[in-house]
TrEMBL record:
One of its GO terms (molecular function) is fatty-acyl-CoA binding. It holds the Pfam family ACBP. SUPFAM superfamilies: Acyl-CoA binding protein. PROSITE patterns: ACB_2 (PS51228). InterPro entries: Acyl-CoA-binding_protein (IPR000582), Acyl-CoA-binding_sf (IPR035984), FERM/acyl-CoA-bd_prot_sf (IPR014352). This is Acyl-CoA-binding protein. Residues 6-88 form the ACB domain.
Amino acid sequence: MKTDKLQEEFLEAVNFVNGYTDPLPADLLLKLYAYFKIASRNSSHPGSKTPLINAFKANALIQAKNVSIEEAMEKYILLVKKEIKKQE
């Protein structure tokens, strides 16, 4: 997928998730979190005040550590299409 088109689709997916109000499963949220962090080149540590949540987020990032930026965007978009938009 072309980089500009991929970036555009990724941002649309992010905006869709940010505006989504129904509850989502925790495992899906953790995958989205990890792919978003990688895709947006955000290397900051999880910032939750709850240590257990930080541990889950860190684990999600570890599981996705070998994913490239482009692949993270593609995986994020695919998750949104398959797991969230299918519910509508």
